[in-house]
Every structure is written in C-alpha cells, then in structure tokens.
Amino acid sequence: xxxxxxxxxxxxxxxxxxxxxxxxxxxxxxxxxxxxxxxxxxxxxxxxxxxxxxxxxxxxxxxxxxxxxxxxxxxxxxxxxxxxxxxxxxxxxxxxxxxxxxxxxxxxxxxxxxxxxxxxxxxxxxxxxxxxxxxxxxxxxxxxxxxxxxxxxxxxxxxxxxxxxxxxxxxxxxxxxxxxxxxxxxxxxxxxxxxxxxxxxxxxxxxxxxxxxxxxxxxxxxxxxxxxxxxxxxxxxxxxxxxxxxxxxxxxxxxxxxxxxxxxxxxxxxxxxxxxxxxxxxxxxxxxxxxxxxxxxxxxxxxxxxxxxxxxxxxxxxxxxxxxxxxxxxxxxxxxxxxxxxxxxxxxxxxxxxxxxxxxxxxxxxxxxxxxxxxxxxxxxxxxxxxxxxxxxxxxxxxxxxxxxxxxxxxxxxxxxxxxxxxxxxxxxxxxxxxxxxxxxxxxxxxxxxxxxxxxxxxxxxxxxxxxxxxxxxxxxxxxxxxxxxxxx
Length: 489
Prior knowledge:
By secondary structure, this protein is of the alpha/beta class. The protein folds into 2 domains: about 5-210, Rossmann fold; about 225-489, no CATH class. Helices cover about 50% and strands about 10% of the residues. Strand 2 and strand 3 form a beta hairpin. Helix 4 crosses helix 5 (about 115-125) and helix 16 packs across helix 18 (about 470-489). The longest helix has about 35 residues, at about 215-245.
C-alpha cells in the first residue's frame, strides 16, 4: 500500500475501504455515491479486475473533505488466502484475528497481491463496505471472503448491488448469510440510485460505527444544504430560459420580386418562422446542458445539442405533434387557472397580430410539425408579427397561452431525466427518455396555487417584464422540482 493510502486512514476523517470480488460493481457504487462520471478518476469497465491498486476518493462538501473511501482491488483467490491465514494460526481452537491477518500480509504480499492490498487499509483502521451482486449464487469463494473480512474486526457494511431490473434471485440467501458476519446489510443499485438512496447509504455508516457519528451527521446536513442549493440553481436556470424564450424575436426583411410582394413576404415569414422555433429549441437545450452541469454529469454534458435532443426519446421530440398534445395544460385548466389569476377571458383563443394573417397561412403550412411544437390540440401556431418600415419583419413570441406551459413542461421532464441518471452508469452515453409516451407532463399535476403563480409570471413575460422580485415564481419552480425528486426516490 502506498504512503498516500496509508496516511488516508485517520481518526480525524471517517474512512471506508470498498472491497469485494472482481466485477461486483465496487467502482460503480463509488461513482454513483460520489457523483463522479470521469473515467480518469473512477474507471468503470465490463472487464473484470479493472481496479488493480488502492485509490483514495473523497467526499468534499462546502470546500471541506468529509469522508474518505478507498477503492480496492477485488478478491482473486479468497479460498487459498483463507487457508494460508488459518495456517498461520497457532491455536486451532481460536479463530484468526487482526494479528493473524497482519502476519498474512507480511508473509504473503507477493503470493496474494490483491488480497493483501485490500486488507491493509482495514488493518490500519478503515471500515469495510463489502459489495456483492445478489444475482450471483453464494459460492464457497464468497463465504471465504466474508470470513476473512469478519476476522478484521472492523465495522462492516454489506451492499447488495443488483445490476438487473428484476428482483435479485439469490438476495434472501445472501442476506441470511451476511447477517451473521456484518453489522448491517443494505441494497444499493449503482445504476439507478437517486439522491435519497445515496443519502440513506451515507446515514447507514452511523449504524455500523458510532465513533464518527458527529462527523457523519454534519456531513448529511451539508449534503442536504448543497442539494437544496442545486435545486434552486436548476429552478433559476429554467426561469432564465423561459424569460429568454418570451423575449426573443426573430427579425428579417423581404424584397419585392417583380412586384410579387405577397409571395416575397410569405417566403420571408416561412424562413423566419423556422429560425424562430429553432432558436427556442436551442434555448431549451442550453438549459438542459446547464442542468447537467449543476448535477455533475460531465460525460453527458459533452454531447451535442442534437444528441441531447435524440436522447430524450421520440416522445419528447419538438418536431412531433404528439409531444405538444400532451404537454402543458389542458384547455379546461388554461381557462380555469387563467380566470382565477385574473388573466381575463379568451385565453384559449389564438390571436393574430393586427387582426389579419399577413401571409401566416403559408408559414403554417410549411413549418408543419415543427411549428406546432408549442401549441396544443387544435390551436394554431400564431406568432406575433410586427411589420416595420422598409419591409422589415419581426416574429415572436407565440400568442397561444400554452406556450410557456409546454416549454416549462419540457424543461421539467429534462430535469427528471437528469436526476434519474446515475453517475455509475457508463454503458450508456445518452439520457434515457424521462417519461412514457402518452403520459402528461408535470405541469398538469401542479397545485392550483402554483399554476396561478405561473400564469401571472407568463403574463409579465409577455409584456417584457420577466422579473420575480418577491421570489414567488422561483419558489413555485423549486416546489415542483422537489415533488419530481420525491416521485423518483
């Protein structure tokens, strides 16, 4: 063991060695627990035996190192190691202990390289987190590992790290046997664990060792504070995206072609309309990238905007009408919440600027499904239109009252997808689709008070004032994000 790893095991900072057989998911557990998706820091590979040395990893909160974990090589020859340890025991009636294991490490460092490397931090005082896959039968080699770890005398937590979707076939057998040798047995799926699961695992450290209870409790308090701060940062990013979308105008001009003014204007409107909706989609994707940064998904952050759009699945494709039929509020909700918020009558009616289409008919036919991205049911995608001097045109924003709701829904679903992606998942490079096709988005399930708050916010945005001086709209977004998080836990 290197001097760095030996120095890592101190009484000042709780330290735990993550041990187990090769290919049980030790590195994946640490990657998810510590939110680390960089292969240069925690390498996760389908090839067994990828971890060949001890590596120290820290949980840092508020600029302070709170916990230390040591990623160890996996057991390679546990049955042979068990025999070698027993051979060092003078009294056959007495079980091997820490002293016997120290003798084993000194005598067999060259014969059992991996076993000695993983035992050293435990013998120096680290606690043990034993990771196994409960889909694998309880072979004799696992029984040997469990015995060796029991002889260390250190606090021991066993993690059933199931890699499959179905219930682990051998979980009950594992639990029964582990219960005789470990202080605590917990389930933890490194490919699916959310914040609440990670927090419960850290809290479980207090159940295997009371010596670090105060430090662990302080760590949990800092973790909660940081998570609340991230939630607020995510809400601010969404509000910023919404304000940008409402404020954006696509500008251009047209020229007469042999006196065909109407034809030239229609062609310009078509081009500007396509550019407008492409820009709104880019604003949304930029917000998604910000969410990935907030939640430390650096590998996914490297995706292009086009890849990110595809990652959200066909049921969240901006060019599909099905998406926009199910996102946002229903017409009944729009009418009800609009009236109660004082938005006035007619919220469910599309209004064309200046009372005429000015060539928008051609625009609607050419943009097709993409133009319908922000409209619901049989609503027409009417963009506000301003004609300036010199045949200047300016388009935006959509007049449909569901515009803000559909965009907010899509952002919330992207947030849900980001939260649902575990850092230990390295076999995929794109976000999973965050919602099943045909299911409504989160805004339809919002409390009426929250919906009313957003109606007032959207009205201000349409007037060019996206301010939230009292923080009421930000609080409404935070509450919604909290609800989404609770549903995922």
